[in-house]
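re: ur question from yesterday

yeah so i grabbed the chain u mentioned. its 502 aa long if i counted rite. heres the sequnce exactly as i have it in my notes:
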Amino acid sequence: MTRKKMLYNKLVVVTLLLAGAFNASAQNDTLYLSIEEVINRLKADNLHIKAMGHRLSKAEEERKAQKGLYYPSLDLNASYTMMSNPIELDLTPVRDAILPAYELIGGQTDMLNNLTGYMANTGTLDPETYQTFSQGITDLTNGREQAVNAINNGEWEKTIMEDQFAMVDASLMWPIFTGGKIRAANKAAEARQTEAVADNEKVVSQEITSLMQRYFGLQLALKVEKVRKEVVGGMQQHLDDAKKLEANGMISQAERLHAEVAFVEADRELKKAKNTVELMQTAVQNSLSTNQPVRPTTDLFIAPAAEDLSTFIAHAQTMNPAIKKLKAKEKLAEQALKKEQAAWYPSVFAYGKANIIDYQLSEYSPDWMVGVGMKINLFDGLQKVRKSQAAKLQQMEVATWQEKAKLDLATGVTKIFQELEQAADQYNAAQKSTEFAKEYLRIRKKAFAQGFATSTDVVDAQLNLAGIETESLKALYDFDVALARLLEISYKSQDIVEYAGK
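ran it thru and got these structure tokens back, copy pasting raw so excuse formatting
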């Protein structure tokens, strides 16, 4: 053995060992999931369901935000203002009006002083009385002079507000009565949250149905692949038999060639079946948001309906997410009407304002103020009337859509229920044909071996059995998918776990 050949053999061995290790690792990574387990993983990992969960949380937060309308609003305001001129108050005319009065008092004081001196000289006043009058006149004169000086020196031109000023203040606004607008807004937010819940339920049900189509589709593909492998095995055996019979001169070359063509065709169908398995495997992994291969452990099944058609229809017409969403829209329309009706009432509110920091603000500005206000619209171009009428029409529209949705659901449930029964009938019919097809194939193989049947007879019998087995599996799949759709439209998707366990 040459050195190059030895190296080649070693590489082959290493490659085989690595391939085996890889296959073992893949085997360990495979998720073997029952129908209940796969639904639980779907709810936890499916990206569409996660996105709807975020939307539901958003609606809940928005509902909580509407409750804030009941509470006061506290704001911190800051402003800087520049004016063309400062605001000033000129009181000079008041000064000019006051000074003549003090000048008149001065003249009268001089006359009184002269009169007092004259009376003292003529002996009319005694010295003591004179002294008292004289002191009073002096005090009056001094007081007048002080008053005149104070008036002349007074600030008769007052700056009320500088041309530039800034302030920081806190303001509060608290609605006391709004005619029901706040309550209507909160009820509307609750209705929107209910609508989001209905949308979330709808998506979860749809994703479960989609997963069931893929899960059972993968199970169907695996079983069809098994059937195709059996067909390939049967065709291989038939081809081997044909070669032996041709060698013994019992059949012609054309019969052997026909067996080879049948084997090649069977192998081609097997490859198609394997491709279908890969496709369905990818679809299941996509639903579960995983890269790990999945193998279903719940088999395809037929289970009797736990309820009759009328019960499914009644449940669908009350619990289907579409009905729940329309009921939420009905509440939205009701609150929209109440909101428009509230516009006819006045809005009463309490308010307050407190100065925190200021720069060159007028000293006459108050440090704080509080009060109560009211606002009522007297005329708005008949908007309130038109909007109220529009809200009533919206209520009527939603009610009409509800009636139509109930009729559509009744039709849909009936159609799917019939498909369910049809799939069960097809499966039962296929089961009865399977035993006959197996016996027919056995007889044809025996007859071919004895030279009493052609290769075409054996191939046809083999393909007939494979077709019946595939039809039986397809009927099981159709039943399971129809059941998933029936439970979805009736909002009972989770119940499919119980049906599968029967």
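noticed a couple things. The beta strands are 31-33, 73-82, 87-90, 157-161, 164-177, 294-296, 347-359, 368-375. also Residues 181-247 form the longest helix (67 residues).
anyway ttyl
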